[in-house]
């Protein structure tokens, strides 16, 4: 009887320890489920970075960034405030309002491109913008112009052509003199693009850019070929501007849809292993990940 009592008193603490260990092992770790842990301890989850409230780029034509400011811009979410008033500004050179756009470019931007943008539910008003206002050039100059119009967003419109005009087979008739007036010996040809860039005026960042290819190719008589070439470029640019406006609609709608679909969500980082694993102390040997060993 005494031996049995001693055995029970010896086994009881052991059984209690085993039960305690089993209970601890069965309990889920607070870090096993990150979502449950975040819900239970929201104060321990790193807060999301706030949206940008200003431009971090330098106030000159270079628009440079320090490394710290670059990381700040990339880590901040995009504050998409649409519907909003937008302005269409014709530019002789992309992203530079200092140049004087031609009258043909202004006409294409206002009559064809801006008119085609109207009607989008995300654009409460589409207005033409003049680059005749004083500005410092570059993105900062565009922001100053937009501020005078009290606009949050600008659509920068530009177009450019590369001339490839050349003589064709009909030019063999030019020595007859009559052929110079009747034969279509000149092929007026050029390749170009129309470009639209969506600028967030508050932050000085570009939300998206779209381009539309332009092409002119037509046989003309030698006399008046240059004038005909300009007319053809104007027609092609007008058609391209309307097609470009459709691309802007698609990009804007996609941007808004993405913002609505991801509202309140914080993206999880997807990490790849490093290409080279650091060598262990004393070995001096580094190994490469993902490579078959010989």
What's the architecture of the domain at 67-158 and 193-211 and 229-261, going by CATH?
3-Layer(aba) Sandwich
Beta strand %:
15-25%
Main sheet summary: 6 strands, mixed
**Shape by Cα distribution:** elongated
Helix and strand content put the structural class at alpha/beta
Please count the beta strands (DSSP E, at least 2 residues each): 8
Low-confidence region ranges: 1-8, 18-35, 41-45
End-to-end Cα distance, whole Å, is 69 Å
| CATH class category name of the domain at 67-158 and 193-211 and 229-261 | Alpha Beta
Computed Rg: 33 Å
State the order of secondary-structure elements, H for helix, E for strand: HHHEHEHEEHEEHEE
Count of separate DSSP helical elements? 7
Helix content: 25-40%
Fill in the CATH topology of the domain at 67-158 and 193-211 and 229-261. Rossmann fold
Protein name: Rhombotarget lipoprotein
Signal peptide: 1-22
Keywords: Signal
Region (Disordered): 266-294
